[in-house]
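JOB MANIFEST
job_type = single_chain_structure
chain_count = 1
residues = 240
[input]
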Amino acid sequence: MSGIEIAGLALGAFPLLISAAEHYREGFEPLRRWKRFRSEFLMFINAVDIEKNIFDATLEEFLISADVPHEELQLFMTDPNYVGWHSEDLVEVLRSRLGPSYLVFMSTIKTLNETMVDLQDMLLLKNGESLKTGGLARDGASKWDYQFKRISHSFSNEGKKKVKSLESTNRKLRELLTVKEKLQTGRGTRTREEIKWGNIFECIRRHASSVHMALRKGWNCSCEISHNTALRLERRHDGG
């Protein structure tokens, strides 16, 4: 699986994770013990939402820089199953841009995706559905009591570590893609600057050659010795 395909999977996982967490939050509200865990869980939801926005922005910037049409861009950003995520052309753009760093990108995007899977497991999220599989006791309050014990225990042990891992890998992905893009843009700017000055010097060379030819024709003699001339160069002023 290419890095682009894994990125598409992660793109779809973020909203599912946030939706499941919000679902749990609503179910936990009536529980008395919820107050002690509430702030920690809300911080988790906010943290994942922030990382989602950063990840979305990183992907969108990359797709725009890869000249993906606006209409298709919307499909990429709203449909993780869109066929474009399997595009070999995008993979080549990514490889070309990252160069040797492509392997680092692959390792990082895999780590991010694995972290998302771990967080989904904590919420018993499978195929986009929660609270329907995996050890639910009975309906009603007992169900939420059971889930509260399970999730609060999981988050106290591993939740914070997973969120920090998510933040770290997400920042690394953004740095890899944006820094490489800036370097390419910088190289392009320097190339255009070099072309501009090259054209200027070529223009000077042509003018100098024209002056030389005019002087040779003006002398029109058969002397074999070299001649000297003094040219008075003045700045031209436009207008009065």
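[summary]
The chain has six helices and no strands.
Helices lie at 3-28, 34-65, 70-78, 88-98, 102-122, 141-219.
exit_status = 0
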